[in-house]
Amino acid sequence: MKLKISSIFLLVAVVSLSAFTTIKPVAYTVDAAKSTITWVGKKVTGSHNGTIALQSGTLNVDGKKVTGGTFTIDMNSIKDADGSAKLEGHLKADDFFGTAKFPTATFVITKVAGTTVTGNLTIKGITKPLSFPATVTVNADGTVSALAGKIVVDRTKYDIKYGSKSFFDSIGDKAINDEFELAVKLVAKK
Description:
Layout lengths: L1 H19 L5 E5 L5 E8 L2 E17 L2 E16 L4 H8 L11 E10 L2 E8 L2 E8 L1 E4 L5 E11 L21 E14 L1
Antiparallel strand pairs: 1-3, 1-10, 2-3, 2-10, 3-4, 4-5, 5-6, 6-7, 8-9, 9-10
């Protein structure tokens, strides 16, 4: 009888302790060389597109679910697909991203619910919430892949007003859309 009672107490103790034990998510390091960020900016008379490099990043994975992450984007790496040095210089200038003063932008994941990622995007020292759809896959080889095909960012929220009809009424066909789009492919490993 004492053995039975002792066994029950031991079982209760193990169950109680396991209720307070949490498994820490595993941090995966993003492979910047295998990851890509592309951008598209539109204006009344057309559009421009190009790339920007991911400087570093981590994804926190609990089992097969992403629970968080932090990413740093190298703003000085912005490239125009057409190779326009003039456009690249303008995008780096103070009236756009101001890369001399703000060489990086960051995104910190605060929540992942289903296929929606929510976090805080910081550009030019200004942080705003941002949500977008993404697909995250834990691969058989132990890597994690994340794909966000269309992240829409309102540049005016980050004090980037150049060419915006929202701020300059008489700009006409020289207007640049307030929103730009990003597409992100991430590859991360332990």
